[in-house]
User: Which sequence fits this backbone?
């Protein structure tokens, strides 16, 4: 059995200001998104999007990720608690972000950006989709560094004890690393390859929906369900139930794109 390295969640401090690893992962996510998306624009993707448009789009995306991720966690996972303790909603430093909520937030933020700039929404979504998985990988690495969101108990040789979660040694799946590899690195490689050629409008976005939905669904089998939710209908977790619509919508969208 392996033991979690027990990283200090604070990378360094400057007086009263503490720079945390998790915050650094968000910076990595946004910077890589900017670099990769600008590269795609220079290669002729994204319709009439320009490099300067990408800079502006990032601001909309950051707001969508943060607001959507927080609201998604509140509504999808702990609605009863937060409605009873509304002031806890603002304590984002204590954790509580949902990918699916952040995803919906980004969809709305990009739609608002496109409405203001008179851009075609589906073209912009196809442009940015391949740049997203690297940011997801950074976020999962932040989870691993913090020792949060560990996996289910296991007897596999690479099972890991997370002292932050279990006082007594207990091997768990390092599910953060599973998600890092599947939803981050592998999804990035597949999407970047798929989007390297011109595809029908909506096809790249559909590939992202299908890919993320499938990989998240698989990774959830190793991830420990939230204590306050447990497993839901059919023995599936909340993450799996939220991923199923992504797969279905992505498949329908892919069929529509190629049919069109």
Assistant:
């Amino acid at each position: 059995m392996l033991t979690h390295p027990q990283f200090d969640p604070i990378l360094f401090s400057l007086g009263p200001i503490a720079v945390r690893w998790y915050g650094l992962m968000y910076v990595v996510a946004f910077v890589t998104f900017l670099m990769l998306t600008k590269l795609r624009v220079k290669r002729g993707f994204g319709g009439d999007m320009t490099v300067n448009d990408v800079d502006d789009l990032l601001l909309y995306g950051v707001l969508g990720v943060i607001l959507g991720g927080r609201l998604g966690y509140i509504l999808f996972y702990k609605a009863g608690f937060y409605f009873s303790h509304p002031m806890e909603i603002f304590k984002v430093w204590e954790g509580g972000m949902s990918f699916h909520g952040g995803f919906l937030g980004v969809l709305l933020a990009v739609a608002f950006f496109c409405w203001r700039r008179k851009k075609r929404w589906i073209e912009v979504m196809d442009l940015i989709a391949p740049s997203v998985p690297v940011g997801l990988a950074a976020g999962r690495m932040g989870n691993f560094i913090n020792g949060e969101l560990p996996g289910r108990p296991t007897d596999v040789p690479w099972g890991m004890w997370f002292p932050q979660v279990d006082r007594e040694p207990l091997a768990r799946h390092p599910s953060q690393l599973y998600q890092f590899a599947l939803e981050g690195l592998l999804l990035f490689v597949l999407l970047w390859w798929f989007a390297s050629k011109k595809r029908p409008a909506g096809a790249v976005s559909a590939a992202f929906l299908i890919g993320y939905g499938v990989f998240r669904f698989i990774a959830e089998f190793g991830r420990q369900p939230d204590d306050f939710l447990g497993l839901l209908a059919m023995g599936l977790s909340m993450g799996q139930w939220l991923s199923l619509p992504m797969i279905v919508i992505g498949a329908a969208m892919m069929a529509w794109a190629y049919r069109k």
Observations:
- The beta strands are 2-3, 10-14, 17-20, 160-161.
- The longest strand covers residues 10-14.
- Residues 2-259 form one domain.
